Amino acid sequence: MSLLDAARAVREMAYAPYSHFKVGAAVRGVSGAIYRGCNVENVAYPEGTCAEAGAIAAMVAAGETELVEVAVIADSPSPVPPCGGCRQKLAEFGRHDTPVLLATLAGGTQATTVGELLPGRFDANHMGRAG
Length: 131
Ligand code: THU
Fold this sequence. Notes:
By secondary structure, the protein is an alpha+beta fold. Helices cover 26% and strands 24% of the residues.
């Protein structure tokens, strides 16, 4: 199964009764394994979580901390860009050149990278130490 197919499939599981906007994300760990996540909303709106955050949490829970590929899909007119917080989350585990594929259910795609999504990111060097 391709990473995009995995994201498309898990999108169906999204819990989005407030926005009615379902998002699916899949990340490939350096091991080659695929981890999936969907958005999970909450009646206390700020407590909702994004699809990308879910996929990253699944990867870390499985013992991986390096992602090599990302796919995100939604039923939107144009490929949905990850929110600011998710860009920082992706940057934590990806590299500058890690490919990110943004897609629509209708078949639109936009290829980008973690570094393009978050130039000038905050990292451990800004704290003057390694982590
Ligand atoms: N959402 C994601 O899951 N990922 C994105 O990249 C953009 C937004 C979710 C959050 C919320 O549940 C819904 O989409 C509407 O913002």
